[in-house]
Automatic annotation (TrEMBL):
InterPro entries: IolE/XylAMocC-like, Xyl_isomerase-like_sf, Xyl_isomerase-like_TIM-brl. One of its GO terms (molecular function) is isomerase activity. The keyword Isomerase applies. Residues 21-268 form the Xylose isomerase-like TIM barrel domain. It comes from Bryocella elongata. Keywords: Isomerase. It holds the Pfam family AP_endonuc_2. PANTHER family: HYDROXYPYRUVATE ISOMERASE (PTHR12110), XYLOSE ISOMERASE-LIKE TIM BARREL DOMAIN-CONTAINING PROTEIN (PTHR12110:SF21). SUPFAM superfamilies: Xylose isomerase-like (SSF51658). This is Sugar phosphate isomerase/epimerase.
């Protein structure tokens, strides 16, 4: 498994070459650049050029995460701001505006050699129905046509809504005949929807096992972070692996069995109080845990 770190760990800060240096020094072979104007302003050509120059000078592969906020919401952003960009909103105007914002971020690939872009299909309360399927396919087709010439592959990420379950994402890709669309398996989001211990005792299959099987060899990227599950009341904590209740031994087993190894992208919560050396040490521990040789 290739080691990656998302700039999400520095999300409240402006992305600089010094921050990218610290992720490289932590052993990152790939870096996911989180598209947010207060962090990585993809509409600022100078900011994009600086990031592009850094990646050209370092043997680190860049990937992109789609924006989660509109330009208006970026102005009042805080760590408690809920995402507002929705590619499958029931409002057509919102869908169009959301796709336009993602395209603005994708335009950065003209300078930064992004290989992939992670997409969020929907928001927390979106439901699985015919409309959601149609709107998902429309958004994917539209963005795929835009990203393809830039050399960027789209990756659909599982969320905690009913649309973006691994099984439903696979169904969207199958029905839409999207042969060049892959998947990003977010293990923290999966833990937020994992079946309880009572259900497992009754023979219910682990959602982690199902997800690896459903995504198969189209699984390109893993988002590695931890939480205490849907029944803890603590939400999507984005903890370092090992600090929550994710079954990392099972994850390590499933990753080891894959024919093509995915990028393991650490997507942990930002903590301005931590020095970069702490990030280095924690990243090494986290990757060891996912390899099955951790603490």
């Amino acid at each position: 498994m290739r080691h990656g770190i998302s700039t999400h760990v520095f999300f409240p800060q402006r992305l600089t070459s010094a921050l990218l240096d610290s992720l490289r020094d932590a052993g990152a072979e790939a870096i996911e650049v989180f598209a947010a104007r207060h962090h990585f302003d993809y509409t600022d050509r100078a900011a994009v050029r600086d990031v592009a120059t850094w990646f050209r000078s370092n043997d680190v592969a860049p990937t992109l995460h789609m924006p989660l906020f509109t330009a208006e919401d970026e102005a009042i952003w805080s760590r408690h701001t809920a995402p507002t960009i929705n590619l499958i909103s029931m409002q057509k105007s919102t869908r169009i505006a959301s796709m336009d914002e993602v395209k603005r971020a994708l335009e950065a690939a003209e300078q930064v050699p992004f290989t992939s872009c992670v997409l969020h299909p929907g928001l927390r309360d979106d439901e699985w129905d015919t409309r959601a399927i149609d709107d998902s396919m429309t958004a994917i087709e539209h963005l795929k046509a835009f990203a393809g010439p830039l050399g960027v592959k789209l990756l659909l990420e599982n969320l905690t809504n009913d649309v973006a379950t691994p099984a439903h994402l696979a169904e969207i890709v199958r029905v839409g005949h999207f042969s060049n669309v892959g998947f990003c398996l977010d293990l923290g989001h999966l833990q937020m929807t994992e079946v309880g211990e009572e259900a497992k005792a009754e023979g219910a299959k682990s959602l982690t096992e199902e997800a690896f099987e459903v995504f198969g060899d189209r699984l390109v990227e893993l988002h590695l972070h931890d939480n205490h599950g849907q029944f803890s009341g603590k939400g999507d904590e984005h903890l370092w692996p090992g600090a929550g209740s994710v079954d990392w031994a099972l994850v390590a087993k499933k990753v080891a069995a894959m024919k093509t190894q995915p990028v393991g992208m650490l997507e942990v919560a930002y903590d301005l109080g931590e020095a970069s050396v702490v990030t280095v040490d924690r990243a090494k521990d986290a990757w060891a845990l996912v390899r099955g040789v951790g603490r």
